[in-house]
Amino acid sequence: MPAPLQNDNFLRACLREPVDHTPIWLMRQAGRYLPEYRATRARAGSFMGLATSPAFATEVTLQPLERWPLDAAILFSDILTVPDAMGLGLQFAEGEGPRFEHPVRDEQAVARLQAPDLDRLRYVFDAVASIRRALDGRVPLIGFAGSPWTLACYMVEGAGSDDYRLVKTMLYARPDLLQRILDLNVQAVAAYLNAQVDAGAQAVMIFDSWGGVLADSAFRRFSLEPMRQLVQRLQRTAEGRRVPCIVFTKGGGPWLEALAGIGADVIGLDWTVSLGDARRRVDDRVALQGNLDPAVLFAPPAVVQAEAVAVIDDFGAPRRADGRCGGHVFNLGHGISQHTPPEHVTALVEAVHAHSRRQRTPA
Amino acid sequence: MPAPLQNDNFLRACLREPVDHTPIWLMRQAGRYLPEYRATRARAGSFMGLATSPAFATEVTLQPLERWPLDAAILFSDILTVPDAMGLGLQFAEGEGPRFEHPVRDEQAVARLQAPDLDRLRYVFDAVASIRRALDGRVPLIGFAGSPWTLACYMVEGAGSDDYRLVKTMLYARPDLLQRILDLNVQAVAAYLNAQVDAGAQAVMIFDSWGGVLADSAFRRFSLEPMRQLVQRLQRTAEGRRVPCIVFTKGGGPWLEALAGIGADVIGLDWTVSLGDARRRVDDRVALQGNLDPAVLFAPPAVVQAEAVAVIDDFGAPRRADGRCGGHVFNLGHGISQHTPPEHVTALVEAVHAHSRRQRTPA
Fold it and tell me: Do A214 and B307 touch (CB under 8 A)?
């Protein structure tokens, strides 16, 4: 029997229910900018050493919550666990990004590809269960996965890319091959996220990190539509409560209205979009998550606070004149940088909580 | 006395005047994907060896025009010539991007910065004059420069960057220092572009390659506003004809309406935006340039042609029901990739010319 939730502001904001302050969490909040993270990582030996050990994953997931009253925890893991479990052979070489030993680049490789046995991802579900126990009801736990398109990018390119030449060549020259990869990814990611929810995840987020590199019509067909199918397959209730789904396409501003229509509760936004404009465009049909530029955290605390206030004011008062409610989950527009001074995060969290409480105090 | 222009479709489209076909040119059309370019570059010894020699610059500028009936030529040069002339010490190490020996990172360096003596950029104006003579009226010549913000990025970072940490830290922590750099860049770039026009450039383009990395309010203040000031200072008539100004912010889709209001004749767009939507947003108050994903050129010629037709159809018929005219200059949404097979460009140019001529034939 899980402990009752002491702070459900995050879940409530996702569902556009009243909250007493704007909840905040930070993408990659358990990360290299924290000395305690670097220490645990050194003990684990490698990034995958951390991610594959439920004990280490639990330890680093909770580290930022020990420092700050963040309103949500997010599973410590990586989006590439799924293609790794498909047999692509994930490698993290020191000082480089991730690589796959067996990228999927031709008809034969695509034909061989199969949805992964979820048993190979057992370590993730064990980490979710372990983190839930450790959280003991303090804040909700977010599970996550990569979007079908974003995973396809890595699976075809075999690594990060500047120009996405290989996957875009497949997209334009052999859309049938890309479609088969995407169909498999929809299936695999749906099963993966549902298993995270079964293990205790109280919200799920889909990271479409590379949707923004696509042309308008290609985005709609190869990123948006698979995400729509994925969202439809998600289990949306657990422990008697709705499990909110967040979709974040980096650079997805041009497609905000379309993204708001695929069934997610929350759309994540990067900093290139004004939250106020975005809110008008979606007319509070979904909640919004974001969208401070992580680079603001390099500036002195007073500037961090002023910029955080500007984001909250740009979103505006949650309750509208017509009585309906908007939902805002404060976040950065991208993962926190390893060069961030942790004391600037202190200023950020304080400013978000204090200013949003003031915003809710009747004058 | 310059030769009369034989093909002015590009200039006419920029000014939303009727044309007999959609003009096309390609960003970085004189580049590494052409074997003849690689041969000239080998003779010149280096990229800057090409750019600083009017003879070599003329040779490579004309190379793509020998292959294809492109509707405009663009000066072969680099946006970093201006900060180089300010004394920052531009270096192109083999296999790496450009670097500055003396980046501008603190109060002292910013105070020392001065607008460049245009004599140090004489080689650029000589190249413009030489290319005009060599073109002999075939098509118009486009001059160009980097935007004040984009130059500031390189000047502060000292090189390309993944996260723009140094320049964004300056932006948020010391906006006064960044503002002084931008003010100088406005002055310097205006003088530089006007000197290119004096030397024979018939249109000018401002490359805001990094405007799209900024938060909404930061973009408006530190990229858009300096570009507005710059555009106001440009000489807009030469040889008895209007000199069109093109502004291209990579990732600038969110700010299209604002960009359309700064006085430019043409707004360049990358492929994330639908041209038809963009045209409706600006209501034909400016012409649009773009926006095929350069990755389409990796696909077989039949796909290239279909995608080119889709871009033209998305823009729609130039003449509207109310009799007003839109303007479309076909281009990629970014520079052409070095991995592009030149014969795919053949298919592209043919498709753009043929389909747009058909579009103008009464049924």
Answer: no
Residue B122 known to be catalytic: no
Contact A215 B298 (CB under 8 A): no
CATH number for the domain whose boundaries are A20-270: 3.20.20.210
Among this protein's residues, is B163 annotated catalytic?
Answer: no
B28 has catalytic annotation? yes
Across the A/B interface, how many CB contacts are shorter than 8 Å? Answer: 103
| Fold (topology level) of B9-359 | TIM Barrel (3.20.20)
pLDDT, average across residues B286-315: 98
In this structure, are residues A28 and A37 in contact, taking their beta carbons and an 8 Å threshold? Answer: no
- pLDDT for residue A363 is more than 70: no
Amino acid at A301: P
Query: Rounded to the nearest 10 degrees, how much is the dihedral formed by the CA atoms of A282, A283, A285, A287?
Result: 70
User: Quick one: tokens of B73?
Assistant: 């030529």
B164 touches chain A (CB under 8 A): yes
* Separation between Cα atoms, residue A284 and residue A307, nearest integer Å: 23
Question: For chain B, what are the domain ranges?
Answer: 9-359
DSSP track, A43-77: HH-SHHHHHT-HHHHHHHHHHHHHHS--S-EE---
If you count DSSP H runs as helices and E runs as strands, how many of each does chain B have, helices first?
16, 11
* Distance from chain centroid for Cα A212: 15
From A41, A99, A132, A221, the catalytic residue? A41
| Predicted local distance difference test score (pLDDT) of residue B363 | 63
Whether B172 sits inside 8 A of A296 (CB atoms) is yes
The pLDDT mean for chain A works out to: 96
Residue in A284, A113, A118 with CA at minimum distance from that of residue A198: A118
Which tokens hold the place of A230? 């994925």
> Given B8, B12, B16, B28, which residue is catalytic?
B28
Distance CA A321, CA B282 (A): 31
Q: What pLDDT digit, counting tens, does each position of A140-175 carry?
A: 999 999 999 999 999 999 998 989 999 999 999 999
pLDDT band at residue A260 under the 50/70/90 scheme: very high
- Closest residue of A to B305, CA-based? A172
The answer to whether the CB of A361 falls within 8 A of the CB of A321 is: no
Contact at CB, B169 and A216, closer than 8 angstroms: no
Q: Record the tokens describing residue B191, joined without a space.
A: 């003088």
A266 is written with which tokens?
A: 């929350």
Interface test with chain B among A169, A222, A249, A256, by most B beta carbons within 10 Å: A169
Provide the chain A residues 26-55 that lie in CB contact (below 8 A) with chain B.
none
Q: DSSP string of A204-237?
A: EEEEETTGGGS-HHHHIIIIIHHHHHHHHTS--E
Q: Which two tokens stand for residue B114?
A: 């001065």
What is the per-residue DSSP string for B103-154?
---SHHHHHH--PPPGGGGHHHHHHHHHHHHHHTTSS-EEEEEE-HHHHHHH
- What is d(CA B254, CA A272) in angstroms, rounded to the nearest whole number? 7
Q: Which of A208, A222, A209, A212 is nearest to A172 (CA)?
A: A222
pLDDT at position B206 over 90: yes
Q: How far apart are alpha carbons B359 and B22 in whole angstroms?
A: 10
CA distance A246 to A205: 4
